[in-house]
């Protein structure tokens, strides 16, 4: 792996400084009623008065060990379709490397719970593979077809009376969400796109459900309260979110599965929506329920589900965003519903290790599969050690001798932070905030990482995280 020339812009550094500046603030949530758009002047009459529903569903990862994110998104698609949302109005981003993956014990099928039905069948391949990227996601949300590169050309072509639902499931870190392609998705950029969408007057209200580690950091202090946007996140700005239905969990998986099938916050809202009449259940009622389930039954796991933006919108019924399944028309919302708390779940960041470890344990003694799994466990572990140690060392070098850097300079010398390493974004931001210059970060990264490790986790072939 050859060294890569580093080019870092001042604005990049400024971004990290702003990231740190907001991370300490806690947004105060109003319970005031939402302010709606004034009717657009040149309403061409195409929008039904009740408004159309639109949805954007995003699985931000790839790889079989991340099975659960694409399973979550497929499940969300089925849920919306059963609710009556039109296929043309649901835009799906998924890498699409799970159903036909050689590790998948049920070829062509994806499930999102131990006894769940196939959720893959019929899911449109709007944006798959390398087309799952930040540029296309923003173009889709903004309804800008000319900005698209590849994919089905489906965009959110919404009008002023419409309701938009965005659901995203992936890894994250402070101020950042993963993508299976480079670059990752940054909180500032995402909030800017939401502001632009609002300014274009092409929705009445928008709901954003976000599953990722540190997902609260994407909206905390960044999402204004006057955009008619209500967001909930799987975790606060400083904690992990949790995978569920993992090998070794209770309830147990079919034994042939060696990977987590879902994420806790995600299956909590979807299993709730699956069984209720969404004409009678409000966003707020769902929030309370999901919060309770995602918090876990004791202190050993779980995360704090948060809400941001125009919290007044949460009194609206879910049907506006998700439709409702006619089969549930007689099921009214009841607070004490029967959602079962899982007894054990897996930290999102450890779900890859759980997969490799389970594969290792189940493979026959002496088999090639066992050797491969062992190699994967060791590679994943050594990548983590490398990232942890080099971030720490760089901090010491910079604060001890000089002061700091950028992610790109780090990655040029130390290899990709990857899905695990993005948890260190906050450390790197702190280093930036201390006013450290690029050349100093360069120097420190070079000293901390004389060579880029060769394992599959650290290669730069997928590009930089930032
Ligand atoms: C749509 O995207 C193109 C290409 O990126 C850009 O030039 C144009 O300004 C965008 N249009 C709108 C309305 O934002
Ligand atoms: C709901 O209840 C009504 C009245 O009892 C009944 O006619 C209808 O078939 C029920 N719907 C479902 C989906 O069970």
TrEMBL record:
Similarity comment text for this entry: Belongs to the peptidase C13 family.
Gene Ontology molecular function terms on file: cysteine-type endopeptidase activity
InterPro entries noted in UniProt: AE, Legum_prodom, Legumain_prodom_sf, Peptidase_C13
Protein name: Legumain prodomain domain-containing protein
GO cellular component: vacuole
Active site: 171, 213 (nucleophile)
PANTHER family to which the protein is assigned, alphabetical: HEMOGLOBINASE FAMILY MEMBER, VACUOLAR-PROCESSING ENZYME ALPHA-ISOZYME
Signal sequence, renumbered to the chain: 1-24
Keyword Oxidoreductase attached: no
Organism: Thlaspi arvense (Field penny-cress)
GO biological process: proteolysis involved in protein catabolic process; vacuolar protein processing
Domain of life: Eukaryota
């Amino acid at each position: 792996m050859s060294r890569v020339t580093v080019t870092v812009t001042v604005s990049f550094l400024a971004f990290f400084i702003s990231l740190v500046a907001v991370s300490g603030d806690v947004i105060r949530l109003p319970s005031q009623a939402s302010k709606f758009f004034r009717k657009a002047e040149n309403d061409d009459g195409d929008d039904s008065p009740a408004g159309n529903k639109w949805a954007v569903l995003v699985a931000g990862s790839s790889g079989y060990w991340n099975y659960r994110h694409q399973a979550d998104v497929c499940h969300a698609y089925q849920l919306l379709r059963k609710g009556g949302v039109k296929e043309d109005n649901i835009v799906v981003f998924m890498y699409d490397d799970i159903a036909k993956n050689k590790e998948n014990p049920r070829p062509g099928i994806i499930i999102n719970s131990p006894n769940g039905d196939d959720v893959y069948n019929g899911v449109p391949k709007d944006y798959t593979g390398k087309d799952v990227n930040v540029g296309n996601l923003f173009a889709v949300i903004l309804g800008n077809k000319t900005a698209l590169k590849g994919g089905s050309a489906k965009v959110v072509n919404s009008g002023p009376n419409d309701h938009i639902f965005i659901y995203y499931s992936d890894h994250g870190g402070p101020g950042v969400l993963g993508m299976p392609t480079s670059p990752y998705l940054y909180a500032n950029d995402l909030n800017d796109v939401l502001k632009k969408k609002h300014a274009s007057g092409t929705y009445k209200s928008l709901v954003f459900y976000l599953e990722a580690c540190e997902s609260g950091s994407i909206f905390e202090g960044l999402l204004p309260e006057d955009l008619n946007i209500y967001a909930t996140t799987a975790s606060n700005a400083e904690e992990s979110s949790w995978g569920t239905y993992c090998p070794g969990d209770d309830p147990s998986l079919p034994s042939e599965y060696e990977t987590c099938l879902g994420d806790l916050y995600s299956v909590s809202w979807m299993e709730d929506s699956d069984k209720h009449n969404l004409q009678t259940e409000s966003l707020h009622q769902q929030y309370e329920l999901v919060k309770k389930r995602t918090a876990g039954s004791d202190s050993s796991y779980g995360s704090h589900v948060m809400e941001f933006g125009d919290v007044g919108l949460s009194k609206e019924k879910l049907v506006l965003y998700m439709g409702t399944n006619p089969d549930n028309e007689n099921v009214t919302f009841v607070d004490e519903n029967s959602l079962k708390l899982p007894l054990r779940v897996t930290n999102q960041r450890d779900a890859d290790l759980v997969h490799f470890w389970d594969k290792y344990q189940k493979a026959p003694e002496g088999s090639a599969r066992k050797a491969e799994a062992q190699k994967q466990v060791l590679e994943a572990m050594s990548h983590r050690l490398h990232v942890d140690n080099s971030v720490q060392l760089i901090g010491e070098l910079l604060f001890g001798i000089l002061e700091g850097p950028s992610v790109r300079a780090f990655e040029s010398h130390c290899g990709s932070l990857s899905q695990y390493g993005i948890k260190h974004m906050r450390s790197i931001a702190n280093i930036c905030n201390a006013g450290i210059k690029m050349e100093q970060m360069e120097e420190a990264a070079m000293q901390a990482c004389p060579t880029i490790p060769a394992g599959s986790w650290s290669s730069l072939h997928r590009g930089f995280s930032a």
